[in-house]
Amino acid sequence: MTEPKWAGSPDPSGRPHISYYDSANGDLKYAWLVTSSFGLIGDVVNALLQLTWAPVPDAAEYWIYGTSGLPWFVPGSAPSYQYRLAILPGTSTGWESGNGVGDPSANWTYLVIAVDPEGAELGRSNRIGEFDFEAEAP
Question: In this structure, are 57 and 107 located in the same domain?
């Protein structure tokens, strides 16, 4: 009997999920279709950053990630988003930072991920950043 190389089926929302064995590397792999990306907008109101986005269909939660530090603003680099700052219900379309902006030593980028009830990713936003400048006397 030959062992199957892959198997797949759609989830309740119709997105395909596929698992397969990578025989070259000896790894079992899993993939699913991320069906959307959505726009993230940031505004500064009363020295706090406010993020807003359009709702994602079937989203049970929104996970807000952020990371700080200058290296994340280098073109071509991508943050790992090790800090999950908030988990909001799927009915949410906005979040406000707990920290003020304006500190040149702490520059942040943010990302919002929409997930279904099982925690599978439905879509992710664009990255948005807060970058402060500090003037120095010559």
Answer: yes
Task: Looking at the structure, tell me whether residues 19 and 63 fall in a common domain.
Answer: no
Pair (106, 49) in one structural domain: yes
**C-alpha separations of 114 from 25, 57, 86 in Å:** 31, 9, 12
Q: What is the pLDDT of residues 104-123, one digit of tens each?
A: 666 778 889 999 998 888 88
Q: Supply the pTM of this predicted model.
A: 0.65
Please report where in the chains the tokens 């040149």 appear, as a residue: 104
Higher pLDDT, 57 or 105: 57
Which strands form 94-100's sheet, in the order they lie side by side? 40-45, 48-53, 94-100
Taking the C-alpha atoms of residue 44 and residue 55, their distance in angstroms, rounded to an integer, is: 21
Largest CA distance in the chain: 77
| pLDDT score of 2 more than 50 | no
Q: How many domains does the chain have?
A: 2
The domain containing residue 75 runs over which residues? 34-130
| Mean of per-residue pLDDT scores for the chain | 75
Query: Could you give the count of Cα atoms lying within 13 Å of 112 in the half-sphere of its Cβ?
Result: 29
57 shares its domain with 124: yes
Within-domain flag for 138? no
